[in-house]
# Entry
Amino acid sequence: MEVKKFSNDYNSFDIDLVEDEKVLSIYQTGDDVNLSCKYEDYRKISNISFSISTNQGEVYFIFDKLYKDIINGNVLGEDESLKSVKERMQSERSTSWYQSLVQNGIITVLCDAYPIKCPNVLKIIKKEDEIILTFDKFDGEFPKAPYCISINIRQSGSRIYDFCAPFKTLFKQLQTLEDKKDVIKSLTKKL
# Structure
């Protein structure tokens, strides 16, 4: 996996994760976090999956933390050993908005940038040694970019309330990655 970082207007970096002709972009617009997936060659798409395996080290662990925090109801990323945090996590898991987003170990995020009747959708699934992000574009009347599928997660005005916090943490943790190619994977491909 190749990690590319680009300076943005918010004193941080936009991140591109490139794997097998697919690009997963994570970037900031104001207080919002956006995830966008596309092919490098700009093929028209209606859905696309991006897999992050344990082989990808730090990138995998950052996405694994996102998955675990959301599944456990720790949407604010607090210390889970504290009794008050455990109670808050239990309370979070019982809310209707949480139960609509997390079902049977699958996290389903509706894009905040589109009307509720036709949002793009991101599903996050964890398998034994990988996390799979599947982006689906709603095929409706609302015009959307033909070459990528974007998910906007709003800080305020979101229909999914506190759900922005784990994605803001993800974005912050990705800032620490070095701009580099995965050397082990590059060597394996050459052999």
Notes: The two ends are 16 Å apart (CA to CA). The CA atoms of residues 30 and 48 lie 26 Å apart.
